Amino acid sequence: DVKVTQSSRYLVKRTGEKVFLECVQDMDHENMFWYRQDPGLGLRLIYFSYDVKMKEKGDIPEGYSVSREKKERFSLILESASTNQTSMYLCASSLETSGSTDTQYFGPGTRLTVL
Amino acid sequence: SQKIEQNSEALNIQEGKTATLTCNYTNYSPAYLQWYRQDPGRGPVFLLLIRENEKEKRKERLKVTFDTTLKQSLFHITASQPADSATYLCALDPPSGAGSYQLTFGKGTKLSVIP
Question: C-alpha dihedral over A85, A86, A88, A94, to 10 degrees?
């Protein structure tokens, strides 16, 4: 079974702090994704990566950056946390399937609160 | 861009009945469509994938249909149980040739099965 783990289930930070959210997958998947999920807004893609050191902006990249130094690890960075970044953050991975998108496997999520 | 509508935010049904959830989309027709289940405070979990050339797909008590003319997928849970209570998300792959690995997710329908 694919396993996607996230470094924390719950996180509380102060406004202006730099925040790191870590995600690790153990199935040698090429693609990794970061979403945030808010009530009434659904899943929104922040960034994704289709290879080591490669990244692409999703729908809402402002205020975030990412890092993928190793294939199994994808980090989301909030450079200066703000209260409107309080949310559930979900990491996902998928196996590259030539010409089409594959099933995504999600981590358990990190509930981030910014005070 | 693709727009997805899932028929209602919440659906309540009696235990033992069949639950039917709807996913409608606009614009292009995806090559395939996926359904995920999400429990409170958890990441989505993949359930079923149906391709555009498949009319119907089954897995145990789950059935998915895909009508590219109507631009609609129906997700059925037969003999529903309280344990089926969760939020169900549909997801569509990007347009052919888009070179992207993103899925577009609907906002989900929260199903409650009442004993």
Answer: 20
What domains does chain A contain, in order, with CATH numbers?
A: 4-114 (2.60.40.10)
Contact A104 B46 (CB under 8 A): yes
- Could you read off the pLDDT of B11-63 as tens digits, one per residue? 999 999 999 999 999 877 787 899 999 999 999 999 999 988 888 999 999 99
Instruction: Report how far apart, in Å, the C-alpha atoms of A88 and of each of A12, A36, A103, B56, B106 are.
Output: 12, 6, 21, 33, 17
The confidence score (pLDDT) of residue A67 equals 97
Q: Which CATH superfamily is domain B4-114 in?
A: Immunoglobulins (2.60.40.10)
Nearest-angstrom CA–CA distance, B98 and A110 = 30
- Of residues B31, B42, B89, nearest to A109 (C-beta): B42
